[in-house]
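Subject — a protein and its fold
Encoding — discrete vocabulary of local shapes:
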Amino acid sequence: FREEHGYFCSPTQSTKPDSVEYDWLITKEFDQNRIFIITVGYFPTYEEAELACLKKLIETVKNK
């Protein structure tokens, strides 16, 4: 997705007082600058956030 379409996805950890959750955001590179596209969260594990992000990347590319 980075090389062919310019999209970047990065799951991140969010620590709350009583738990740890993960969300992610998608950015797209335009002329060497990254523009925020979308964010979705929260997921109980990094792997779930990563999978949700991948699914959204596929959907985004198909719809463009």
